[in-house]
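Open question from group meeting: does this chain pack into something compact, or does most of it stay loose? Before anyone orders reagents, we agreed to write out a predicted structure and look at it together. Recording both the input and the output here so the notebook holds the full record.
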Amino acid sequence: MPLYRDMVRVFRENMWLAEPETRNHFSALIEFVDVWDKVLSDRIPRSAAPAIGHTEENLKAFYSNLAATHDRLRAELGM
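Structure tokens returned:
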């Protein structure tokens, strides 16, 4: 979870640099980290996360957006 918390921190600190389409995924990242923090601190039962469909699958659109944006920006810079 520390890396996910770092992702939230980096995203939050650099929101002004994010593409509008990427910003749309911020809430999904926050929710993902929040729910898993609650599971890991026993505020939500461990069985609840999979039962409500709370998996990393929920972040795939975010990851795809990051990869596409990265590739597009590298192409624009001629890298």
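Observations to bring back to the group:
Helices lie at 2-13, 20-23, 26-40, 48-51, 60-77.
The mean pLDDT is 91.
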